[in-house]
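Supplementary Methods. Inverse-folding protocol.

Structures were first reduced to a discrete structure-token string of length 342. This string, shown here, constituted the complete conditioning input.
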């Protein structure tokens, strides 16, 4: 992909666009031809002294590191610091973070946080909340994703809120869960989001819930144009994405995410849930900003009865700017969503 100068140029241009650049960091293991392999004590070994692949996996292409070796741990931290200091990256997405001892993560993150004049973002590819206590800012929301799939396949919509509460229970302020309708694992091994949720309209509706109920939304490569084929992420083959297909879906993603960026209620507001069996309904509020989200999770017309707190209220459509005067019910067509603001 280039050299260090190229990476610095990419980071500089990203920063000019108000974007952060994170590197994917695999701390649990290395390839078998990594230069570290000469230090045998840096790796886990079997009873015969042979370096082993990560236990309990079929990852035969990588070698398990030995975190009982303090020299290896310090070299790992040195390497992480290098990319912050030399390439000005903004943090790391740490692969298979649960496979590495939490004591190491605390040691590494404390060191990284002590680098002057840096505001780093650290993301653990794990759902273990304990990793947030070591200094990570973000963890993955697999339970929320699983519940969301179940809802779009018939489970009551109010169960999404139950899953949200479970994931955020006990989290300290500033700690968040990353949420998605697809990621590299799901897209490669499972199916495209439109296949999983029931079409492009269903997938977009699921993304509205994912982006607005709480947490930090993730957009996987090609998702914003509903790329029709699974990406063979682990197969070593090239996959081309046609960025000109489905311009309407791309425009809708822009509307969804631009409104989230502009609205503090969606990013940090209090959450009140009013969901029914077939409609996800909730209000996010922060100061004077208030947003009402209604999402039909079924492919059939639904009539949602508004609770007393929402009946006979007037809002503004967040995407069109038109006035929305609510009565006592709201009619939603299949997979339709309505985003209103005060």
């Amino acid at each position: 992909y280039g050299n260090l100068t190229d990476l610095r140029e990419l980071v500089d241009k990203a920063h000019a666009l108000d974007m952060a650049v994170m590197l994917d960091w695999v701390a649990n293991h290395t390839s078998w031809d990594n230069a570290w392999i000469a230090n045998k004590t840096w790796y886990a070994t079997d009873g015969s002294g042979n370096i082993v692949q990560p236990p309990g996996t079929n990852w035969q292409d990588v070698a398990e590191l030995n975190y009982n070796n303090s020299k290896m741990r310090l070299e790992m931290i040195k390497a992480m610091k290098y990319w912050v200091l030399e390439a000005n990256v903004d943090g790391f997405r740490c692969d298979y973070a649960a496979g590495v001892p939490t004591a190491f993560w605390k040691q590494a993150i404390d060191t990284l946080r002590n680098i002057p004049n840096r505001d780093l973002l650290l993301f653990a590819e794990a759902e273990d909340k304990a990793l947030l206590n070591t200094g990570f800012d973000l963890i993955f929301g697999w339970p929320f994703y699983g519940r969301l799939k179940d809802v779009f396949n018939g489970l009551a919509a109010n169960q999404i809120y139950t899953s949200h509460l479970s994931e955020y229970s006990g989290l300290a302020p500033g700690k968040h869960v990353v949420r998605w309708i697809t990621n590299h694992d799901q897209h490669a091994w499972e199916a495209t989001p439109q296949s999983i949720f029931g079409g492009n309209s269903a997938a977009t509706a699921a993304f509205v819930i994912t982006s607005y109920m709480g947490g930090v939304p993730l957009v996987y490569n090609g998702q914003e144009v509903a790329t029709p084929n699974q990406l063979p992420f682990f197969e070593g083959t090239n996959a081309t994405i046609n960025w000109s297909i489905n311009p309407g879906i791309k425009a809708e993603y822009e509307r969804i995410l631009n409104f989230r960026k502009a609205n503090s209620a969606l990013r940090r507001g209090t959450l009140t849930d009013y969901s029914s069996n077939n409609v996800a309904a909730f209000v996010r509020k922060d100061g004077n900003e208030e947003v009402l989200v209604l999402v039909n999770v079924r492919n059939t017309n639904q009539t949602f009865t508004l609770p007393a707190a929402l009946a006979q209220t007037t809002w503004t459509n967040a995407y069109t700017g038109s006035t929305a005067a609510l009565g006592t019910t709201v009619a939603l067509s299949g997979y339709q969503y309505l985003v209103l603001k005060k």
